[in-house]
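Researcher: We're teaching a course module on how sequence relates to structure. For the next exercise, students receive a sequence and then see the predicted structure as tokens, so they can try to spot secondary structure elements on their own. Here is the exercise chain.
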Amino acid sequence: MELFSLIFKNMNKRIETILCFLMISVFTKAQIPNGSFEFWTSTNGYQTSDNWDNLNQITFNNGIYTCVKGSPGYSGASYLYLISKAIPGKGIVPGIAVCGKIDTITYKPKSGFPYSNRPQYLSYYIQYMPYDPSDSSSVKILLTKWNQTQFKRDTIAFGASYFNSMEHNWFYNSTYLNYVSEDTPDSAIIVISSSSSIPKDGSYIYIDDLQFNGIATGIDEKFLNSNSVSISPNPSSEVITIKLNSELTFPVEVVFYDCLGALISRNSFLSQSNVLNISNWRKGIYIMQIRSKKNILNKKLIIN
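Model: And here is the predicted structure for the students to work with:
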């Protein structure tokens, strides 16, 4: 009897180990809720991608939908299709999907999903076509952590990609995360939009197979030697000088994001020394992302 009891205990341990491994594997693959957009639920005559909120709830009375189930997906049966539409009495409503909950008045995210890793980037397959170059589709990510002392959410990292040309074939893309803290987040928000803050009727984006990848170990200032780019003075409150090393391939795009991942400024520099007026920017931490044909670099700017 003792032998059978021992064998039974060992079997239980093995089963627990296998179950634990399977749970970890499932969790790893399901790191973004319904990131492959394979699961949909019918509501009020339209389909909603499970775990993703959208603005169909304010447009369905007009028989118009800004979020649609596309088929087939890059892989699997379906993908997420977002399109900006003119709605009577509401103007042009962008196609927006939030992994979490969306505010139907401001069109901004209200909440996201639990997440406690430090990925380096978000990858996905995508197609898009803004109505014209003045509009842009986008993918944005925000990682945060609840601050129990100050009773607010602290930004851990953010990332954003904007698309203002057109691409009618599936292609692989990555949105890199800019880390402003070495803490581990406890939640994530992903926002996908067919248009910018001034939407244009007909702009659209297809997206499929979202997945976090890589591991960030600290605050991100990678891809180029940090000495290749300098900001002075830093901190600053009025004017900064951005100096670019000759190793960069010009023209160089210099983009600024605030700590919530909102696009603040986009510039194209043709020379090594450039002056930028920041006197009307709010105090805080900003990420300056330098992009050339061959290089990417993130630098932190503090406005006091």
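Model: If you want an answer key for the exercise: The chain has a mean pLDDT of 84. The longest helix spans residues 2-29.
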